[in-house]
Amino acid sequence: MIDFGFDKLALIGAVALIVIGPEKLPRVARTVGHLLGKAQRYVADVKAEVNRSIELEELKKMKTEFEDAARNVEREVSQAAGDFEKSWSDVTHSIGTLDQPDGSAGSLGSSWEPPPPEYKHPRKNWRLKRGAVPQWYKRRHGVRTHVQSGAARVARFRPRRPSSKVGP
Fold first, then answer.
1. Does the residue 152 lie in any domain?
2. Cβ-Cβ contacts under 8 Å for 156 (sequence gap 6 or more)
3. Is residue 128 one of the residues assigned to a domain?
4. pTM score of the predicted model
5. Dihedrals phi, psi of 93, to nearest 5 degrees
6. Quick one: signal sequence residues (predicted)?
7. 24-76 pLDDT, tens per residue?
8. What pLDDT is attached to residue 109?
């Protein structure tokens, strides 16, 4: 980059004052300043665009790496699930073919119990539950107990104007 010191800038200013003249120098300096500002903004925009494109390339690379890792995990999980299913079927098949003490083969006999019933969420009535809250608690915590339109709510909480009546 070109390095301008104070002495070089003073020399350029003196030459510009002589060549351009004192009447036109402020206008020319202003124009040069505007042009330099535009050039700096253009260079900054180009730098930002290059940085965005570099970041986009990095993000694409990270995306492909992440997708590859996800595929590898999926493949390992499916392989482990297949191995588990195979071993489970071997175990259940071997249990099913064991000879029982009564001489029969097949089922596990009378020691098998059905699984417990699944959990079923109790359907509680929320209106009853809400009605059990005391009114003083609702008032203290700002729970609305009456339905009001938006306009009515605004009118209710609008600050009151002082009365314009003067005198007794």
1. no
2. 148
3. no
4. 0.37
5. -70, -40
6. none
7. 888 988 998 999 999 999 999 999 999 999 999 999 999 999 999 999 999 99
8. 52
Query: Does residue 58 belong to any structural domain of this protein?
Result: yes
Q: Are 16 and 28 in contact (CB under 8 A)?
A: yes
> Domain span at residue 54?
12-78
Q: pLDDT for 116-166, tens place per residue?
A: 888 877 677 766 666 677 888 888 888 877 778 888 888 888 887 776 665
Residue 137 resides in a domain: no
Q: How would you label 17-50 residue by residue, b for 16+ Cβ within 10 Å and e otherwise?
A: eeeeeeeeeeeeeeeeeeeeeeeeeeeeeeeeee
Answer yes or no: are the C-beta atoms of 156 and 148 closer than 8 Å: yes
Residue type, 127: R
* 132: its two tokens: 């059990």
DSSP result, 51-103:
HHHHHHHHHHHHHHHHHHHHHHHHHHHHHHHHHHHHHHHHHHHHHHTSBPTTS
C-alpha distances in angstroms, 70 versus 59, 77, 102?
16, 10, 52
